[in-house]
Specification:
Elements (H helix, E strand, L loop, with lengths): L39 H33 L1 H14 L7
Helix pairs in contact: 1-2
Amino acid sequence: MDPLEQPSDNPSGGRQPGGEPPRGPDGSDTPPTPPAKKPRRVRQLWKAIAWGIAVPALRVALVGGLLYGVVVTERSTAYAWQAAVKVLNGQLAG
């Protein structure tokens, strides 16, 4: 590049005028097009739906497992009975 030449005189980024234009990876004159991406909003929507289903399902499974443990084991049944008597101020008979 000539020291007196201004960068705005040569807009091709340092290449001399008349140089060969860049080619695509397959040798064609058209530059490669980037692959199409899914819109970000669609992905966020699916993530929100997945979390909205997964979290309540896990909560239901956890509560169900705890209730199953209370019903099946003798010690847990005793704890549940004591808690019920305490909540109902001793008015539970059985």
